[in-house]
Write a structure and sequence with these properties.
The complex is a heterodimer. Chain A is of the alpha/beta class. Chain A is built from twelve helices and nine strands. Chain B is α/β, with parallel strands linked by helices. Helices cover 41% and strands 18% of the residues of chain B. Chain B is built from 15 helices and 15 strands. In chain B, the strands form three sheets. In chain B, strands 3, 4, 9, 10, 11, 14 and 15 form a seven-stranded mixed beta sheet that branches. The chains are: A alpha/beta, B alpha/beta.
Amino acid sequence: MNRIDQRFSELKQQGRKALIPYITAGDPAPQYTVGFMHALVEAGADVIELGVPFSDPMADGPVIQKACERALKQGTRLVDLLDMVAEFRQSDTTTPVVLMGYLNPIERIGYEIFADKAAKVGVDGVLVVDMPPEEAEELGPLLKARGLAAIFLVAPTTSSVRAATICAHGEGYLYYVSLKGVTGAATLNAEDVAEHLAPLREMTDLPLCVGFGIRDGVTAAEVAKVADGVIVGSALVSRIAESVDTPETIAGQLKSVLAEMRTAMDA
Amino acid sequence: MTISATGVSETVIKTRFSDLTRMPDARGHFGPYGGRFVSETLSFALEELEQTYHSLRDDREFQAEFDRDLAHYVGRPSPLYHAERWSKSLGGAQIWLKREDLNHTGAHKVNNTIGQALLAKKAGKPRVIAETGAGQHGVATATVAARLGLECDVYMGAKDVERQKLNVYRMRLLGARVIPVESGTRTLKDAMNEALRDWVTNVDTTFYIIGTVAGPHPYPQLVRDFNAVVGREARRQSLEQIGRLPDALVACVGGGSNAIGLFYPFVQDDAVAMYGVEAGGDGVDTGRHAAPLASNAPRGVLHGNRTYLMSDEAGQVSDTHSISAGLDYPGVGPEHALWKDVGRVSYVTANDKEVLEAFRELTRMEGIMPALESAHALAHAKVLAPTMRPDQHIVVNLSGRGDKDIMTVAKIDGTEF
């Protein structure tokens, strides 16, 4: 069983909700990333989304854009990310890792080579922001054949016809984007989210995880009441941005932000 | 100059190109290119746009309104002008200029913005946004927005805001807000990123008027369709004025909208050779250029479509270089990518130096000051014409006028105002 499915089934038995932090790999420099991943797990992360930096992150707001710029300035490449996951796996064999990014870096490496390497180093899922299911005909089956989950987004504006397609193709979990706009834009409305999740529940057994607009323990706890998982990105990455000059303090800060959410969600 | 200056008389084209008029397929693919590679957050907006466009594409009332605006607001048809003196001095084929520079707002861009603004009006969206490089598309968008009373925000790379001050002020006079984009390379591609971010946030009220034949489906198709008036006219005018079809067509290619506009109605005319001229910058061999097709850049995905894309080995999009802001783009419209692969169009380059020479030559010999973008096409015509006979004919798309570039050229001449 894929680590993602394993983790969600454990959480279900425990009656808990997944806490899924996102960080951009290589931010503020590649040597810190694996340490941050371990720190996130210690603070209660159930799944880690590791961002692949891209020169043109069209779906992201300024916080993640700047993280990408910092990581790219340090020369972080997709192949380096795969090395990071391999290093992470030396001491953590259970926490699922999902790579999240844009298609072009994968396109450049080559789909098959990427899928092979990702499976080999212990990646569990891949979320390509600019690859909806209709454009995943080639990469999707290659991932599936290697036990890697192809994870897709669902938006508040997604029609029910499209939602059905996405549910049919999705694996691991569904990433529900809680609001219109880019990452880090505004604060979400939990009631609104609940309303949108209800029809998705009818369509799929996949865990429904919610991202975009989760800033603190209060919003995380609200979302955890209606969803199976809570994804937090910009709130963590903005801490990294504030402390680029004192990188040794970042792991501690990430832990405290995440731990607050964990406590609020489990309460 | 990296060109394939094949004499057209020797060129025997055997491929039948009738399939090329049936592109894209239902999902926006041009062979392996195009498509709709966007975040799910944009899918709804694109589906809505596709429905709007498909319901109006063959609607006679809509087409009549579009044609009326092109005639009375833009001033179409634009002339096909025989550049006799320049042709004679080059000593070869006759060069005909398709005078898109004489359109209202001074470039071909307005054909598309008129069409898309009509779509925005039908869709009931009170606000339009656009990305712009040289500022021509921004001006054309601000113009139609003013006319229809739509709110208008234009995203422009900070580097381009600096080098195209005149157009920035024009847009402001027209009532548009120009938003300088400081991210990335601060040029056209970053402006497009920011416009997409705006659209996904304000999709209920906003129509995104993309300025070129790139972007997610259905943009490459609809921008092509709105610009194809250029080629339809040129075809008719050639038959009237030359008495037959031309032997070759030449147009500059950044994203590729003016080239598609000219080429598309000729795509099945196997005997008509076509040359798309990309920005050679400092020269393709220096790596400092904006010529994804001519330099054989790898395939990649950016701004919603798969195409030839200049990127490094890690898949990060490359910085581009060109004297003309309007061609300073690392990708190219997906239909051009297909036309390259099937051999329908030859994609070549002209470097900055050659472009300036052509700019000066046309200005002095014909009294027509071309945009630096269009001067790329002229630079290639200059190479091509002498390889052909005087009874052969080349149609060059003079896609825009050069007033906006006077400051750039003056600076190179060392003239300060």
